[in-house]
Amino acid sequence: MPELPEVETVVRSVAAHLTGRRIVSTSFTSRFVTPGNRAKLTQRLAGRRIESVTRRGKFILIALDQGTLTVHLGMTGKLLVEGEAGEHTHGVFTLDDGMLFYHDPRQFGRIEWSPGPPPRVARLGPEPLEISFDEFRTRLRRKARIKALLLNQTFLAGLGNIYADESLFAAGIHPLAIAERLSKARAEKLYQAIRAILTHAIQLGGSSISDYVNARGERGWFQMEHRVYGREGEPCANCGRPIRKILVAQRGTHYCPHCQKK
């Protein structure tokens, strides 16, 4: 699933193409991607002006002159400003200048309109690149495994499996460590690791593990920087011992048992 760096990259690559454009017409073909009355959604979007394109957590927010269009890419969703419709295209936006396509083979993504801030977005926690250390440390005071907590979108918005694993490795913290037991020094190391890794991943266009590309169809490069994620059995970049994989919060979790301590 695209995480914060991938969604931020998509937003940056699509914003210049969309901002200020007017939606002439739309077409939606999936009852999963666009649940509810698709004909009504098409009518509602016709003629609307796109005011801005921003990100909140893993959500893309397209602010219109009336309402907000919220896009979640799910597992395999793509927003593309180039190319043409194909077998897995479930959303076509004809603009007064250009086109926008939503492709999604597995149809786990969502495109939804709301008159105000979407409820799902309102429930999200703070942005990892905006939260202060003091607030971050306060929010850590929970009896929860740190990896599970990092995946909780009400704790921090946008972190997912890749960047939780990479941040914990950089901070030397075991994924099963209890959040509230982290010392101030270890909490600050994790805080700085999250910020540094997310910033660097955005600079490299995110991680292209399977389907992810930006709005121009270009792959990201941060997967070349992964230290633990997807490297089960390979030698740790620090100590040379094998990277292990366990299940935490129903997600495959990669870590070095020698370098990461509880």
Description:
The chain has 262 residues and is α+β, with helices and mostly antiparallel strands. The chain has two domains: 4-122, Alpha-Beta Barrel (N-terminal domain of MutM-like DNA repair proteins); 133-255, Orthogonal Bundle (Helicase, Ruva Protein, domain 3). Helices cover 27% and strands 21% of the residues. The strands form three sheets. Strands 1-6-7-5 form a four-stranded antiparallel β-sheet. Strands 2-3-4-8 form a four-stranded antiparallel β-sheet, with helices on one face. Strands 9-10 form a two-stranded antiparallel sheet. A hairpin with a 2-residue loop joins strand 9 and strand 10 (251-255). The radius of gyration is 20 Å and the shape is elongated. The model has no long low-confidence stretch (mean pLDDT 95).
Question: What layout of secondary structure does this protein have?
Answer:
Layout: H1 4-18, E1 23-28, H2 38-45, E2 50-56, E3 59-64, E4 68-72, E5 78-80, E6 89-95, E7 99-103, E8 110-114, H3 119-122, H4 133-139, H5 146-151, H6 161-171, H7 184-203, E9 244-248, E10 251-255
Helix pairs in contact: 1-7, 6-7
The helix tally amounts to: 7
Biggest β-sheet: strands ordered side by side in the sheet = 1-6-7-5
| Strand residue percentage | 15-25%
Main beta sheet: 4 strands, antiparallel
CA gyration radius, whole angstroms: 20 Å
Helix/strand/pairing category: alpha+beta
Keyphrases for this structure?
262 residues; alpha+beta; N-terminal domain of MutM-like DNA repair proteins; Helicase, Ruva Protein, domain 3; 2 domains; 4-stranded antiparallel beta sheet; 7 helices; 21% strand; elongated
